[in-house]
Amino acid sequence: VLRTAIVAGRLPASSQLPSSRDLAGELGMSRNTVNRALNQLIIEGYLSSHVGRGTFVNELSSTRTSPQGRSKTAQASHISTRGQALITQFSASQLEIYPFTPGLVDFSNFPLSLWRRLQDKHWRLSYPDMLDYSYSGGYAPLRKAVADHLRLARGMSPETDQIIITSGTQQSLELCSQLLADLGEIVWVEDPAYWGALKAFMSKGLTIQPIKVDLEGIAPTAPDMNGPPPRLIYVTPSHQYPTGSVMSMARRAELLSIARGSHAWILEDDYDSEFHFHGVPQPPLAELDQDGRVLYMGSFSKVLYPGLKLGYLVVPRNLASAFKQGHYDLNRPGQIPLQAALAEFIEHGHFAKTLYLSRVAHAEKRATLMDSLQPCLKNGVTISGVNQGLHLCVNLPKIVNDVQIAQRLAQKHLTVRPLSAYCFNRKDLRGLVIGYGYAPLTEIKTHGPTLAREISQAILELKVS
Amino acid sequence: VLRTAIVAGRLPASSQLPSSRDLAGELGMSRNTVNRALNQLIIEGYLSSHVGRGTFVNELSSTRTSPQGRSKTAQASHISTRGQALITQFSASQLEIYPFTPGLVDFSNFPLSLWRRLQDKHWRLSYPDMLDYSYSGGYAPLRKAVADHLRLARGMSPETDQIIITSGTQQSLELCSQLLADLGEIVWVEDPAYWGALKAFMSKGLTIQPIKVDLEGIAPTAPDMNGPPPRLIYVTPSHQYPTGSVMSMARRAELLSIARGSHAWILEDDYDSEFHFHGVPQPPLAELDQDGRVLYMGSFSKVLYPGLKLGYLVVPRNLASAFKQGHYDLNRPGQIPLQAALAEFIEHGHFAKTLYLSRVAHAEKRATLMDSLQPCLKNGVTISGVNQGLHLCVNLPKIVNDVQIAQRLAQKHLTVRPLSAYCFNRKDLRGLVIGYGYAPLTEIKTHGPTLAREISQAILELKVS
Fold first, then answer.
1. Per-position DSSP letters for B440-457, written without gaps between them
2. 3-state secondary structure (DSSP) of residue B436
3. What local confidence, expressed as pLDDT, does residue B66 receive?
4. What element of type H or E holds A143?
5. Which residues, including other chains, have CB under 8 Å from residue B364's CB and lie 6 or more apart?
6. Distance CA B132, CA A97 (A)
7. Which of A293, A403, B251, B267 could form a disulfide with B234 if both were Cys (CB 3.0 to 4.6 A apart)?
8. Spatial CB neighbours of A411, under 8 Å, sequence gap ≥ 6
9. How far apart, in whole angstroms, are the C-alpha atoms of residue A401 and residue A404?
């Protein structure tokens, strides 16, 4: 609302905004919600905040357009076909800052003051070489801390030298694409799939071949097996994004055998493995692998905070030196003092503690959301993907238009994603991907029942029409 | 020496090293040099330092190999053709931590304690949204600070909305490649060229077409003009890397006209423009451009420190919204508290002050190096590229093998790069690229004359042989 008012010139430059308390009263919203909206506008540059003086409207440049107002077709004529595909396919259609957007986490409980102290400590201890690029795959004590963490948390046994510190899963995927695959080579991806991975592969010139996912994970069929072999196989076995399937042991063994037979590399994105709520967790493919064909990747963004931009890649031993050099050549990594702070954060148990608290909080949010959704689980509606991760999937009958339901929910400020938005060839999957990472428990309690009611209502109406 | 001793097992795990003072005495090196070597081994994981207890040797994993000892051919069979090209072509053959390596800067004078205070302040002021990814091309106050800086320092007039904060020039180049060019499309690069840019283009599937550089910068010939048109033209007009040419006004106008005629984008890497020592600086192509065909990029790594990993891209107005979205889709940028600290650092004049001090210090280093090199400027040896930047180029007669000279210098621990290592098709360029960014003035005074003597001596011998 505010952004629109500023863009339209109804709030002139330099005018002072009312306090967030007054605004909240005026708009009938909680003060938290108002503050969050104001902060976002400060980051984007619509507003400036001056301590002790208040919040002011900035002068708008003539080129600024609202995110909602940007016209994709107007841009499209200027950029490459690859660029057009990147920014128009597999994207959210608008800024989603509503409670149930999948892939978001609530990082307001991150131990900020501890983190501040650790960072300041390591800046104080830093020596000039720590300000340089990192030539050796990352700061050694952080690589060791990650290896120790994976040993404890995932039963893996990597050596420190196999760990490469990256700026997150996106960079890990790009590095693997560029060092392991040539232009036009085939990458198997799950259908439906995680958008970020698709974009990494598309932009690096790989040919994407979607492979159907079932309840046991990626499920290659005979035609898939008899086609040209893949160079890369990208999977999210701990909690398939977005269906939530957990890959079975049988399927894991089968996939390793396929990789061996076709000389393919498996890229194991151990997405959401930290959030395990039920049953026995499966060992990662990287640990089952006997042939050094699995590259394992993780990130700290779901447990700590997304803007940290530190993740890791565990590579087979005989690739370690090539990956260190390629990472330096392509990315010139740095941020060693930050890496040092994170190493101590992990070594001294703060990461484990933060993860524990986060897991407890999310378990409660998950249970509350599942309870709220019970009333709509009828007429062929089921729920899946609830044992791990920070989202679940409400599966709808095939005849239901999930995009329409998501649009109706968005009008009530409840953002969920239609399952079909993640599909390539699948026409049989319709559903809603609902995240519970972002919303606080109170909002899940408030909005969960609305969600269930709207879903039931929409199905009735859409079935009729 | 130490690394070799550790790898060879002559220094067993857990053994304590003598103090850096004792080591310096024993090895006949300055304590600074010893400390730098020890710090590097801590970053790489060979050593651990414990405050108040000393420095200890770590247990080595069985896969660890020394950087010098890595065998490129052994890796090559595992990785893609693209990956092999990336890590074997256009790379330094070994770790270069010696005084005259081009592209390195001395960041030991960076105002570390001020920077620590600013970072801590902005972490204290940060609110949860600042821990999230950045959706809007970077933290708005930093984008404004960069626009203001470019207005003052380069006479440009970008609007804040045209500035995209990236993790540096490497990411800026990759973003441009992916959003503006399709697989196989042609990018004109300077011959000789900057390695990092070549790798960005190679890894993104572009076809590299080298264009000869002369004293006025990139100089397309009739065959270049009559061939298939380029999609991208990558140039370093302020101080061509590595020859040091400054692009003339006539050439700038010509290049803009070529871009207009062939619907190409110019990627202007304003490398080294901060370090201007002589004559009137030329206006950037981005400022001369009337058609919105120039993308301008800069970084903070040369003035502040490389590991900061923040740079910027100035895009034409009609590309701003596509680049913001593409940047988010491909890179999930973050680090907003760090961006906030940098914004204040620039706004409050600390950046300008640091740059001023750095410029003064480098002017003296440049003058000292030029004086030292005078004695070898005979027998067809000339010097160029001295008006800007942090390196210069000693041009040798065509018949001289510059790789051999560089190898001989390396044996005396003086790392310079042979000009031919940067060439594609050029057989007429032989020379030595000598950096004065990294070595302190005292080292330039000590080693400069040796450099001159060795060059003269080598030319005499190599001419005879």
1. -HHHHHHHHHHHHHHHHH
2. coil
3. 40
4. helix A140-154
5. B441
6. 12
7. B267
8. none
9. 6
Q: What is the pLDDT of residue A97?
A: 61
Residue B93, pLDDT score:
55
Q: Are residues A321 and B70, on separate chains, in Cβ contact within 8 Å? A: yes
Strand segments, DSSP code E, in B167-206 are 186-191
- For residue range B70-90, what is the model confidence (pLDDT) as tens digits? 344 334 458 899 998 888 887
Q: A207-259: per-residue pLDDT in tens?
A: 999 999 999 999 999 999 999 999 999 999 999 999 999 999 999 999 999 99
Nearest CA in chain B to A109: B128
The CA-based angle A268-A274-A277, given to 5 degrees, is 115
DSSP B293: -
d(C-alpha B199, C-alpha B350), whole Å: 33
- Please report residues of B whose CB lies closer than 8 A to that of A119: 119-120, 123
- What does DSSP say about strands B430-435 and B417-418: parallel, antiparallel, or unpaired? antiparallel
> Which value does ipTM take for this structure?
0.90
Strand pairing category for B232-235 and A431-435: unpaired
d(CA A416, CA A98): 9
List CB contacts of B90: < 8 A, sequence separation 6 or more.
B195, B198, B199, B421, B422
From B58, B317, B334, residue closest to A308, measured CB to CB: B334
B352 CA: distance to closest CA in chain A (Å): 20
Candidate from A172-176, B76-80, B241-245 with smallest mean pLDDT: B76-80
Work out the widest C-alpha separation in chain B, in whole angstroms. 70
% of chain A exceeding 90 in pLDDT? 62
Reported as a pLDDT band with limits 50, 70 and 90, residue B464 is: low
C-beta of residue A122 within 8 angstroms of C-beta of residue A142: no
User: How far is B231 from A380, CA to CA, in rounded Å?
Assistant: 53
Side-chain-side CA neighbours of A251 within 13 Å: the count stands at 20
Tokens of B24: 């310096």
Average pLDDT over residues A250-274: 94
Spatial separation of the C-alpha atoms in residues A419 and A436, rounded to whole Å: 16
**Cα(B151)–Cα(B160) distance, rounded to whole angstroms?**
11
Instruction: State phi, psi for A388 to the nearest 5 degrees.
Output: -140, 165
pLDDT tens digits along B265-311: 999 999 888 888 887 788 999 999 999 999 999 999 889 999 999 99
Residue B371, min C-alpha distance to chain A (Å)? 29
Nearest to A420 by CA among A271, A242, A299, A284: A242
In this structure, are residues A143 and B45 in contact, taking their beta carbons and an 8 Å threshold? Answer: yes
Q: Residue B415: is it exposed, middle or buried by C-beta count within 10 angstroms (0-12/13-18/19+)?
A: buried
Residues 6 or more apart whose CB falls under 8 angstroms from that of B277 comprise B359, B362, B363, B366, B386, B387, B388
- All residues of chain A having their beta carbon less than 8 Å from the beta carbon of residue B320 are 63
pTM: 0.90
